[in-house]
Every structure is written in structure tokens, then in C-alpha cells.
Amino acid sequence: MQTRRASWLSRPLLVAFGLVLLLALGGFGYGLLATRSVSAAEIIANNRQRTAANADFGLHSYRGTLGMLRAGVLSRQATVTIQGQRSRAEVCELAQSTCTLYIETPDYEWQYDSTAQQARYTVLDSARQTNGIATGMFSGSSLDQVIASASIDAEVELNGTETVAGRPAYVLLIHTEHGMPDTLRVSVDQEYFIALRVVGLDSSGTELSRMEFTELEINPLVDAATFAFVPPAAATVTCQQSLTVYGSQQFEVDGQTVNQETISRPLDPASGQIVADPTIPCPDFGE
User: Fold this and answer.
1) How many CB atoms lie within 10 A of CB 171?
2) Is 270 part of any domain?
3) Which tens digits make up the pLDDT trace of 151-172?
4) Which letter, b or e, does each residue of 222-250 get, where b requires 16 or more Cβ atoms within 10 Å of its Cβ?
5) How far apart are CA 232 and CA 243, in angstroms?
6) Whole-angstrom Cα distance, residue 55 to residue 53?
């Protein structure tokens, strides 16, 4: 088995935005923030803790619209709904006028390309349902993953406040150590510690890319059907069993113990290549 830190390019829903990783960190209590000024370390810790356990922060669901800009041009847009360990996003490439639907639960994933009429149903490893860190991966948006991935072993500073999607936010500067962008400017909701905006900057401070919520609704009523999907009759459906195994490892960051998700994939001993997920018979998805 090959074990690595969860890459921010590895999950299908978050690949659509080029980001994926989830950490769970026992951070500072929310109540502390109400009585004194907040530090960058506390914001990071609360974001990680909230992402792993939304309900502990009174966040049971949220939905909104995300936009991605490159060179100031809106290139990708998504509508996202997250409730507990389930998420749904419709991601549209505006230049190609194509959209892809992603649904994730602890048991399965759906990916559906409406233009090509191709659907992929993936049954997930059972460890993902029982591992305390693994189940948390569904509780954050793609922007939360930026904090988790970029803030490890990076210099982070608090850089004031601003308003994003109508919500007050702390502004963090995360000075990355592993290539472009040189700095991430991250806006974090002051009440629920959701990452609301992420801007990539080069060494001169020029904006390279931007992802942000343009609309956000906190704790909406979400119908269970939101996370169900029945492929159209004309769609080509592939079903597979995921060989990915989810676990965790611990390491120290600024004197605190961080529990980080790990992702393992089996390797072919002859070629050294990652073994592809095997196809399986598709269940009856109903109508």
C-alpha cells in the first residue's frame, strides 16, 4: 500500500476546484473567541475543528454559490450544498458550457457529466464511514481544504477583516513554501469559521486566482433527496469499488498535535503503478 498525505488534487468534487484535503485538529474552544481578540492560530484551529465536526459549532448545513476567477475572468462556477457528511455540487465550466454533478456521502460517490451523459458510481471503503477523521472530509467546502493543506508548516498571519458574501470575515495571509502561489489570502467567517474566499498571490502581490462564495445560506432546510441521484435512462453508467483506504496520522504543529487524514492506494508490484478501481455490477438505482 502507498500512504501519503491527502493531496489537494485528489477528490473528484474538490478536484473541480483544484483543492482537496481534510484535517481534523483539536483546536481552541469557540467560547474563548467571544471574550478576547483572536489570533491566526486560533482561526486555523477552529476552522479545522469545525470542518471535522460542524454540529459542534452550530453549523448543521450550508449552501451557496462558488466562483473561480483566473486573471480576473470568471471561469468556473458551482452551486454547493453541505449537510453533515454529505455534499452535492454542480460545477460548470463556463467557457465550454459544460456542467458536472458531484455527490459525496460516507457510503458512495456519484459523478455525472450531463454533456457526455456519462455517470460513475463509486462504492467507498468502509473505513471512511468509521474513521473519525475520514467522515469529517464531507463537512467542508473546497475552500476549507485550502486552509488545511496550505497552513501546514507555513507562516500564517492575521491581516484584518472584511465582508464576503454578506458575512464578516477574518483575513489570513498564508505564506506557502512549496511553489506558486507564494501567498494565499484567505477570508474566514467570523462565526462559523467557513473559508469564504481564497486569493492566490505571486511574490509581488499580483492576484493569480480567486475562489469565493458569492452567496451563502447558513443552516437551510435540506431535503434528503438533495444527495440522491438516479442516472437518466440514456446515460452510460459505470460502477466501481474504491480501493482507497482512509486512515490518519499525527504530527506536531506549533506544539499542538494534529490528526491528519491519510489516503492509501494499492500498487501493482510488477509495474509500481497504482491499481485502478475495479468495476462491479451496478445496483438497481430505481426511478
Assistant:
1) 19
2) no
3) 666 788 899 999 999 999 999 9
4) beeeebebebeeeeeeebbebebbbbeee
5) 27
6) 6
Set of cell numbers at residue 210: 480567486
207 to 101, 182, 186, 189, 240: CA distances (angstroms): 29, 10, 13, 21, 40
Number of structural domains in the chain: 1
Asked if residue 282 belongs to a domain, the reply is no
Round to whole Å and give the CA distance between 47 and 140: 9
Secondary structure in 3-state letters for the chain: CEEEECCCCCCHHHHCCCCCCCEECCCCCHHHHCCCCCCHHHHHHHHHHHHHCHHHHCCCEEEEEEEEEECCEEEEEEEEEEECCEEEEEEEECCCCEEEEEEECCCEEEEEECCCCEEEEEECCCHHHHCCCHHHHHHCCHHHHHHHHHCCCCEEEEEEEEEECCEEEEEEEEECCCCCCCEEEEEEECCCCCEEEEEEECCCCCEEEEEEEEEEEECCCCCHHHHCCCCCCCCEEEEEECCCEEEEEEEEECCEEEEEEEEEECECCCCCCECCCCECCCCCCCC
Domain range for residue 158? 2-265
Q: Is residue 215 part of a domain?
A: yes
| CATH number of the domain to which 255 belongs | 2.50.20.10
Q: Which residues have C-beta within 8 Å of that of residue 31, sequence separation ≥ 6? A: none
pLDDT digits (tens, 9 = 90+) for 71-113: 888 889 999 998 887 889 999 998 888 999 999 888 899 999 9
